[in-house]
Amino acid sequence: MRYPTALTIAGSDSGGGAGIQADLKTFSALGVYGASVITAITAQNTQEVRAVEALSENIIQQQLEAVLDDIPIDVIKIGMLVTPSITELVAHIIGRYRIKQVIIDPVMIATTGANLTKVDIAEAIRNQLYSRLTLLTPNIPEAELLTGIQIRTEKDRDKAGEIFLNQGCNAVLIKGGHWRGGTSTDVLYSQNQNPLFFSSPFISSKNLHGTGCSLASAIAAFIALGDDLLVAINNAKQYITYAIRAGVETDFNGGNGPLNHFFCTFSLKNIIKKI
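RESULT FIELD:
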């Protein structure tokens, strides 16, 4: 008997809305035990990102090994990696520990538009992580950076999905939150399968900080709880929709505030799994 567990490898958001903080809130809300490895410290709030500082590769490696040597991890969620060398380190350790379930939210641009990486890490993500992941969850700007094409239409999005698969990505969920309309539609492209659509009503809100981090973390959490990928995506989409709706009326000094992660929480429950 043990808890379902998820590990987040990401940057710290001092404002508490995204990154490590959003990941752990999401894990906790859904009844999953969360461990964390911090890759970078950001100085940010709901208005702006003021500074980003990557941690040393040594302390990142020490964090990873300390967690993975001790805690059985069902799934890893990866966020901001900052540099190609950190990306390579994380990929190497995931391979060494034979982690089978890996969700990657390729955080490179903040909701405010700030660049969160000092150099271009797209190539490192493609070369080091695509072959190891279960699912990639880019938004439209991130998908453009990773594929090298502009995405303005549904045809462009389909082309990007094809590029991801041709580059060796097992599955990619291109998020549609940057497109305005009556619905928010994310599209799953995967090997040997037609695209699948996950839609929810579009909710107008100023409080969307950390939405991408939280969606990827929710997918990871549901996988840790035993869902297959399609069910996990669907459940995560519903969770994020309700979390956005529950935070609409909150005022964060006019800034881009966070979701209400704890609109409905679940207790940690022991599960029976082989360790």
